Write a sequence for this structure.
């Protein structure tokens, strides 16, 4: 379809113009085709980032065609080994992944890890939010922290799967209060729906999850947000943990990885592509529309961040008792 | 806006030619993917997501809901004809449905499931329109403790499928519980029984196990025990439901729909539990002459009830999505992400902020239901003719179909090994008279019950009394106790009366 349109355009503009057009297109186009591996089912956060990269890259003419593969399960631990074994040395393949996989790989104790793939860039992040049911007697973050300090086991906190970012956030909070993270009374739910239902029905005292999960319930007044976990405020009248004097900044970051065993040039080409994509107007538009926070970090800086994130995550999981 | 004027407006919008077209396309697609094992409505809608860039929101959601309802209709077709359930909600349907088909009653079985789906779908959609917000607030009062008690109640239903020997039946149940343990434990994130195979981290798919137990196991068993020179063609029999079929199906439809809808609304309910309970209820309530058909030639009550429960639950799942923005199933989660790509924030305000969209959607659910029954009833004759294929070819076809469907679930070779491994186990189970249904029940209920129990105990800080101090939980446990002990006590009482009578007379 797009090829035919291009031919018609070229024919209409005449031969010299057609040559110019083709020259421009090759100068812009970085890859003829790109294979995108999503280690999660269609429709989730990683899939969304992958499709957004496709949309913006095609609109900007950076990549000719895209091919997607989704292999979901276990926070990405099912898909990762397949990407590693099937795409070794291929410069035209990327995997979309993020913070969830860092934790999942540690608790699952899988032999294949993020060390086996090539970090390219961090693209977005989503801060977490601590909420209570609207009817709760915990009015402020201070109330919540006081309750935790008095009896951590008595404050049942609901969130996503054990060892995930929600759980890690609670562990960090307890640690900052000088408590043992193992005392946490964390209730893991399979997916956002059941977790939200448990909070709305006051089955648990509080909940922690990504801000997009709870945003509508907060807006409708069914949940009260006590604090967000980002660097700056995500909701205008809700403080961050940092400004409340707790030194915790944590978010669900998502990014792009290359195949294992690619050479420096192939790697640089992928980094350049992501850098150009990030600078494009199409990307800004997508960030705006999806409400994603820009967290661009590429190359060695991303690698450093990843190393630190892995070490921190492992430490907290060990404190909680989910990693040895 | 009250429900009636909302519905009137909704029908006004839904009855446009374009929207009817979307509904028809959705129903058609949904029926097709429901027939194929492996590809479910969630995956299909996810693959259709790109159309949200070019189609307006109303059209897209009508299409999605058509796919969702259609898959529920289509799922029963292969359960009945080929003993190969397409999704977890129609596993129970295949228990009696496949037996009916083997005994020349494929037509009535397919017809009762199509009409039952229509009745239940209509009841469920009425529920969405008039009861939605009320029911969902009640459902939110249920916590993990209540869910655990509900699952205990569902375990009672195992007794209906145990077969002649309780020891064999319970062995099957524990095999199912064992399979349910495979994968990452939700409460600790630790892998269990995965033996270092990454494909097992996400657990074993229950549809895969059902297909392996029912279809592959039966095929292998027949191949093993096949007597040379005896090639029979299965009888197809009458396509239409007789008057007595209708009479026997009516109350199961209503009871199934009544059971299914509330379970669908519950945030951790799902479609499997009500089908099990419905099967149990119908088996217990059936007349003595129908009782004999259960587990032998196939009883129509055992198809009508669970199939209705499945469809009503599917409608119920839309309630928390539309009223609270809660995605309580994979399909609902994908639909919510479609809302977001239109810039519509699904949440508690959806009914007021997007009234037009929501009511058009509900109206189109009614229309989809009518379309589906019109689409599916004439197909019954066509589907039933599949059974005219000579047995060796038919079973070979079933094997191919099951293999492709299983590979389609995750594109993983490990799944194929599991399919045939479990299929071979099922072959021996059949040979030595172990019932296979308890395996599936154990596998569905085991993990759900375990998670609910541990969630409840975490919340109560390890206090087991939480299951009996919460009133709703206690009531459900008492019902379970009555269901388990009641029939035995009643039988004992009858014996005593019978024993004392001769002396008195």
């Amino acid at each position: 379809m797009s090829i035919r349109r291009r031919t018609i355009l070229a024919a209409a503009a005449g031969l010299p113009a057609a040559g110019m057009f083709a020259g421009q297109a090759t100068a812009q186009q970085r890859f003829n085709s790109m294979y995108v591996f999503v280690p999660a089912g269609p429709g989730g956060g990683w899939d969304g980032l992958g499709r957004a990269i496709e949309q913006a890259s095609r609109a900007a003419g950076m990549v000719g065609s895209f091919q997607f593969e989704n292999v979901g399960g276990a926070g990405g631990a099912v898909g990762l080994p397949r990407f590693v074994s099937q795409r070794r040395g291929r410069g035209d393949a990327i995997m979309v992944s993020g913070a969830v996989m860092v934790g999942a790989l540690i608790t699952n104790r899988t032999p294949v890890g993020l060390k086996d793939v090539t970090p390219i860039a961090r693209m977005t992040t989503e801060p977490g939010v601590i909420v209570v049911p609207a009817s709760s007697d915990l009015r402020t973050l201070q109330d919540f922290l006081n309750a935790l300090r008095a009896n951590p086991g008595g404050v049942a906190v609901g969130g996503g799967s054990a060892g995930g970012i929600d759980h890690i956030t609670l562990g960090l909070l307890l640690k900052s209060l000088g408590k043992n993270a193992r005392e946490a009374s964390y209730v893991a739910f399979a997916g956002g729906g059941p977790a939200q239902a448990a909070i709305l029905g006051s089955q648990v005292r509080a909940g922690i999850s990504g801000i997009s999960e709870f945003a509508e319930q907060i807006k409708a007044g069914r949940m009260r947000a006590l604090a967000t976990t980002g660097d700056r405020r995500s909701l205008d009248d809700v403080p961050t943990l940092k400004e409340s004097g707790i030194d915790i900044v944590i978010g669900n970051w998502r990014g792009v990885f290359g195949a294992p065993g690619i050479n420096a040039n192939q790697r640089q080409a992928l980094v350049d592509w992501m850098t150009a994509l990030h600078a494009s107007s199409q990307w800004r538009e997508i960030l705006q529309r999806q409400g994603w926070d820009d967290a661009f970090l590429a190359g060695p800086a991303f690698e450093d961040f990843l190393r630190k994130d892995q070490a921190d995550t492992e430490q907290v999981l060990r404190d909680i008792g989910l990693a040895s | 806006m009250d429900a009636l004027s909302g519905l009137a407006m909704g029908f006004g919008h839904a009855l446009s030619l374009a929207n009817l077209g979307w509904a028809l396309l959705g129903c058609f697609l949904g029926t097709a993917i429901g027939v194929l094992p492996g590809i479910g409505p969630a995956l299909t809608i996810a693959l259709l997501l790109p159309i949200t860039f070019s189609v307006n929101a109303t059209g897209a959601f009508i299409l999605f809901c058509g796919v969702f309802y259609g898959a529920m209709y289509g799922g029963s077709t292969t359960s009945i004809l080929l003993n190969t359930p397409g999704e977890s909600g129609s596993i129970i349907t295949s228990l009696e449905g496949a037996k009916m088909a083997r005994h020349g009653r494929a037509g009535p079985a397919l017809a009762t499931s199509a009409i039952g789906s229509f009745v239940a779908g209509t009841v469920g959609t009425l529920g969405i329109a008039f009861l939605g917000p009320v029911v969902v607030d009640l459902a939110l009062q249920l916590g993990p403790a209540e869910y655990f008690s509900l699952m205990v109640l569902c375990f009672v239903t195992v007794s209906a499928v145990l077969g002649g020997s309780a020891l064999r039946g319970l062995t099957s149940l524990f095999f199912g519980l064992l399979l349910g343990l495979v994968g990452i434990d939700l409460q600790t994130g630790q892998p269990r029984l995965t033996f270092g195979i990454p494909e097992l981290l996400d657990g074993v798919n229950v549809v895969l196990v059902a297909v392996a137990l029912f279809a592959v196991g039966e095929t292998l068993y027949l191949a093993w025990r096949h007597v040379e020179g005896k090639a029979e063609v299965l009888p197809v029999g009458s396509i239409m439901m007789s008057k007595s079929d209708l009479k026997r199906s009516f109350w199961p439809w209503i009871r199934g729909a009544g059971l299914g809808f509330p379970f669908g609304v519950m945030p951790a309910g799902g479609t499997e539990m009500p089908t099990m309970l419905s099967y149990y209820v119908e088996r217990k309530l059936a007349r003595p002459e129908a009782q004999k058909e259960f587990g032998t030639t196939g009883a129509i009550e055992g198809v009508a009830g669970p199939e209705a429960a499945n469809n009503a639950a599917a409608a119920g799942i839309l309630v928390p999505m539309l009223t609270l923005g809660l995605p309580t199933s994979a399909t609902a989660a994908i639909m919510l992400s479609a809302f977001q790509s239109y810039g519509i924030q699904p949440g508690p305000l959806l009914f007021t902020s997007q009234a037009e969209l929501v009511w058009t959607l509900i109206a189109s659910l009614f229309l989809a239901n009518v379309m589906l029954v019109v689409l599916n009833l004439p197909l019954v004759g066509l589907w039933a003719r599949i059974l005219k294929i000579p047995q060796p070819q038919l079973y070979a076809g079933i094997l191919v179909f099951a293999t492709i469907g299983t590979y389609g679930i995750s594109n993983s070779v490990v799944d194929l090994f599991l399919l045939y491994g479990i299929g071979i186990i099922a072959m021996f189970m059949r040979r030595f008279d172990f019932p296979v249904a308890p395996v599936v029940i154990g596998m569905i209920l085991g993990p759900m019950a375990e998670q609910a129990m541990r969630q409840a105990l975490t919340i109560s800080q390890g206090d087991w009394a939480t299951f009996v101090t919460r009133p709703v939980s206690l009531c459900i446990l008492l019902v379970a106790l009555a269901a388990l002990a009641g029939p035995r006590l009643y039988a004992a009482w009858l014996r005593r009366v019978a024993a004392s009578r001769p002396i008195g007379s």
In short: Chain A touches chain B through 55 residues (CB under 8 Å). The domain at 30-125+252-318 of chain A is CATH 3.40.190.150 (D-Maltodextrin-Binding Protein; domain 2).
